[in-house]
Amino acid sequence: MQYNSTYNIHNASLGLQTEIERLKVQALMGWDKEFRNLKWYGLENGMSVVELGSGPGFLTQQLVNSLPDSLITALEIEKTLLDKAQNMLNHIPEDRLRFVQSSIYETRLPDESFDFAIVRLLFLHLHNPMQAAQEIFRVLKPGGKLVIIDIDDGIFGAVNPDVQALPTVLKKIADHQATKGGNRYIGRSLPRLLTNAGYTDVDIDAVIQHSDIHGIEGFKLQFDINRFVGFFNNGLINQEEFDQLKSASEKISNSPDAYAMMTFVMAHGKKPEI
Ligand SMILES: C[S@@+](CC[C@H](N)C(=O)[O-])C[C@H]1O[C@@H](n2cnc3c(N)ncnc32)[C@H](O)[C@@H]1O
């Protein structure tokens, strides 16, 4: 199976359990707004939906609850995460939810079998996003739609109090991830990627998660200093940058004056009708 991505839960700097918790709060925090946009892009109850890179299943759970007449297919490469999602959702009948262990590059799903595909926070990690977009094109029915929910560190967001070193740190981390085959600036390239993969009706929008609206809890793990310790230890970020991040992390965890927002892009493409 082709992993070919920079995300492997077993290498997460926070450790397996805390990383799963981080994914959980991140998925749940933005769900209402993301679902609003998914519906606006054409997602409807009753459609057959595939979610690729479904991880521990928190978005899957929202899809199952929000689309009571749909069959949801959750595709994930990593067995540990697939097992976790399956255990959490084992009460959902098979005609509503099925799990597939497979790669986004070669899903082994049948041609033209889905009305709607959703990929959240995986494209930034892919060595070959075009191959993934084309594989999803293959499994979509004519007229079927793909929505990619992802990030672009150029419009990452903001924190208050401001962290002066944040743009530099984000750039260093993005450059480092690029050497491994990922792209933390993927957001800006998604319209072009979708067009080149054959999709029409290409569009892009954004949702913003703000701690005053969604609660500060979800931001604490994003700014957990342990996420940056490895970059400090291997010399990618310097002492001053690390100290600023540490201070921001403490303020976000403890100060009622702190607030933050993060931007997620949502890009849409449609497989042409025949
Ligand atoms: C950052 S997590 C996002 C999980 C989930 N989509 C969410 O929004 O919470 C990326 C997920 O993609 C999975 N993944 C990585 N490479 C993959 C591949 N080649 N094919 C399918 N899934 C992959 C990872 O195991 C992980 O579950």
Overall description:
With 274 residues, the protein is of the alpha/beta class. The protein has a domain at 9-153 and 182-210 and 264-270: 3-Layer(aba) Sandwich (Rossmann fold), CATH 3.40.50.150. Helix content is 42%, strand content 22%. It has helices at 16-29, 31-40, 58-66, 79-88, 129-139, 166-180, 186-196, 211-214, 217-222, 226-233, 239-254; strands at residues 48-52, 71-76, 97-101, 114-120, 140-150, 157-160, 200-210, 259-270. Strands 1, 2, 3, 4, 5, 6, 7 and 8 form an eight-stranded mixed sheet that branches. The two termini are 31 Å apart. S-adenosylmethionine binds next to helix 1 and helix 3.
Write a concise synopsis of the structure shown:
The chain has a domain at 9-153 and 182-210 and 264-270: Rossmann fold. Helix content is 42%, strand content 22%.
Secondary structure elements and pairings:
Blueprint: H1 16-29, H2 31-40, E1 48-52, H3 58-66, E2 71-76, H4 79-88, E3 97-101, E4 114-120, H5 129-139, E5 140-150, E6 157-160, H6 166-180, H7 186-196, E7 200-210, H8 211-214, H9 217-222, H10 226-233, H11 239-254, E8 259-270
Parallel strand pairs: 1-2, 1-4, 2-3, 4-5
Antiparallel strand pairs: 5-8, 6-8, 7-8
